[in-house]
Here is the input.
Amino acid sequence: MKEAGTVLGMEGGGTKTRWVLLDRGGRKLAGGEEGPGNFLLAGSGGLGKIFRRIARRLPEAPDRIGACLAGVRGHSEAARLSAILRSVWPGAKKIAVGQDTDSALAAAWGREDGFLVIAGTGSNVVGRVAGQKWAVGGHGHLLGDAGSGYDLAVRALRAIYREKDRSGHAPRLAAALLAHAGAADLDRLVREVYRPHGKDWLAGFAPVVLRAAARGDRLARGVVQDSVKELGDRLAELARRLRVRRPRVALTGGLFENPYYLAEFRRVVARGALPGASLKRLRVPGEIGAASLAGWSGAAPAGRPPGRLVDVEALPTERGNPRSRGMHKMSIGPLVRLFVGEERRTALALRKAAAEIRRAAGLVADALRRGGRLFYVGAGTSGRLGVLDASEMPPTFHADPEEVQAILAGGPEAIFRAQEGAEDDAEAGARAVSERRAGGRDVVVGLTASGRTPFVLGALRQAHRARARTVLVTAHPGWRPERGGLRPDAVVRLDVGPELIAGSTRLKAGTATKVVCNILSSIAMIRLGRVHDNLMVNVVPSNEKLRARAVRLVRQLTGASPEKAAEALAKSGNKVREAVQRLGA
Here is the structure.
C-alpha cells in the first residue's frame, strides 16, 4: 500500500517509551524516548503527559499514529488509549493501537506467522499461527514474568538472603547487589527493596547479576539458569500447544543485548526446551513495527546522518596535561606528589573566580532569604556534587529538605552508576525544573564542567522562562553565551586547566565545583542566621558524635556544665538554640 503524510510509531513498556516520526519514504524525521509507557502503571494522566511531550518535539503533526503499549490487554484499554491519543492529535487520520507484543511481532515478521520472546523489565512469549495471536506469560511482575529483569533480581535477592540464613555469611553476590543499591548492609538493603520503588528499579539489579554470572559466581549462575530455563519452558509450552515443531523465534528486549543472557537462553532452547527452533535477534525497533500497524509499509529507516561530534579539544578539561605525561610508568610516591601539587591550580582558579562567586552567592542568599529554594542541576560528577551539598543542608543547618534540592540527570540511580544518554536530554532538564514549579523566588544553579551539558542548559533555560534566577558553574574559562542563547544571571568560570587524567573532571574541576557549592550554600545559611559566630548552632544531633558536639556548643555559648547542657538539650528537643535560650544566655 502507499501511505500519505507522516506516521508516528510508539512502543511503550515498564521502563521507557520509544517513538519515531517517519515520512512517506521511510525517512526518519524525529525520534526519541520518554518515560515508562505501561498502560496499567502509567494511567491515563501519565500517558497524556508523555504524548504531549512527544507532540512538542515533533516537527509536524502526524497523519497516522501507531501506538503499542504494555498493559493494553483488551477492548476497554484499547479504546481508552485511542481516546488519549485523539485528545493530543485530533487531526490524525488513522490511529492504530495494541500491545507492545503487536509492534514487536510486526517488526519481526510483518504479517507472517512467527514467534516472539520478549525479555526486558518484564517478559512475554507470543506466537502467531494462521493469523491468530497466542501468548503465555506477560501477566506482570507480580504474577511471574519469568526470565525478566525483575525476575532475575527477585531470584538473586532471595538467593543471597537464603544463603545468609543457611550459612550465617553473606555470599559474594551480596556485595555486588549492595554496591548497586548503595546500601550499607543487607538489613538496609531489605528496607530499600520494600520502599515504593517502581518495578524498573528492582529490574535494574539484573545487569549486576549477569555480570557476576559471567565472572563465574556460583550463586548468580544458578539464578540466571533457573530464570532463563523457565522462560525457555514457556516458549516450548506455547509451541507445543500450537503444534509448531520448528518455530522461528525472534528475541527482543534489553536482556537479549547481554551476551551471557543470550548465550544461556540459546543453550536452554537448543538442549532441551525446543531443539527444533530457529532463533534470531530482532534488529528492527518496536516503534517501527508500531508505525507499520498504522499503515506505513517501508523498511527500517536509515535515519538522518549523525550530528556533528562535540569538539572535545575545545574543552580545557579534555586536553592533555603535559605535567602528567608518562604517569603510567610512575611509582606511587611521585604520583602522590604530582596529584597534591596539581591541586594548587584549584586554589588559584577559585581565587581568580572570587568576584563571580561573590555575585552567585548574593543571588543564592537573596533567593533563600525571600523564602525561595536553591536547585542544583547537573549530570555525572557535577550532578553528584550537587546531590552531596544538598543532602548536607538538613543535618548541618536544620534546613527543610525542600529548601535546597539537587536535580541529577538520570535520577537517583545515576548517583552510583552512569545513566546512558541522560546528560544529552535537554528537555528532561527543562521538565525537571518545570515539575518542581521553580519560579520567581527561586535560584537554579547549573553545574557543568564543559559548560555545554544539554540537560543542564535545558534546565537553566526553563528556569529563566519561569523567572527564576540562574547561575552557571563551569570549568570552561572561555565560556560565553551563544548568540541568542542562554544568558545566566551569574557565571562562575573555574580555570583549573587540563586534568592530570585527560577528561576526568572528577579531579580538579570536581574539587573546585564542590568548593563553589560549599561557598554558595554556607553563605546563604550564614545570612539566614543559622550560624552563630563560627558555630553550627542549627546542627541536628542525629548520632553520638553530633550529640556530643551539640552539648559542647551549648557549653561554649552559656558556660553551663556538661550535665546542665545535656539536660537543657534534652528538654529542648535536641535544639541547640532553644537549649541556650532555656539556660538564659
Notes: DSSP finds 21 helices and 15 strands in the chain.
